[in-house]
Known about the structure:
There is one protein chain. The longest helix is centred in the N-terminal third of the chain and has 11 residues, at 17-27. A six-stranded antiparallel sheet has the order 2-3-1-4-6-5. The chain is built from four helices and six strands. A hairpin with a 3-residue loop joins strand 2 and strand 3 (43-50). It has two domains: 2-69, VC0802-like (2-Layer Sandwich), CATH 3.30.2130.10; 71-126, VC0802-like (2-Layer Sandwich), CATH 3.30.2130.10. 31% of the residues lie in helices and 42% in strands. It is of the alpha+beta class.
Amino acid sequence: MAVEKQLSVFVQNKVGSLGELSENLAKASINIKAFSVVDDLDWGIVRLIVDDPDKAKEVLQKLGLMYGEGNVLTVELGNRPGALADLATKLAKKKINIEQAYATATEKGSLVVLSTTDDKKAHSLLSKTYE
């Protein structure tokens, strides 16, 4: 369980945009821990959790890409049926709504990235159960 910086990068919705972005981050030795892509007709938003957000911002600036940043919660879930249901139910019982969520595989199971209507309360609640 952690609070991490999420970078939301605006990229053109065209072939190769994600490859170019990820290649430039890799060249700077920045590891992408999790990502999601939301597209529109002309633009996409790539949400990134990286191991060095400050260095990643330098890369984005050099590429001339617009981006936003904000804090999100990251939670390691085990690889078992009901793991996500347990997390979502804990939040729902305290009237905390999940506004954004995505996940990626890890050695232990999955890393869930989420933002809620009350991240401070969600962090306090979830940190009692999750690492």
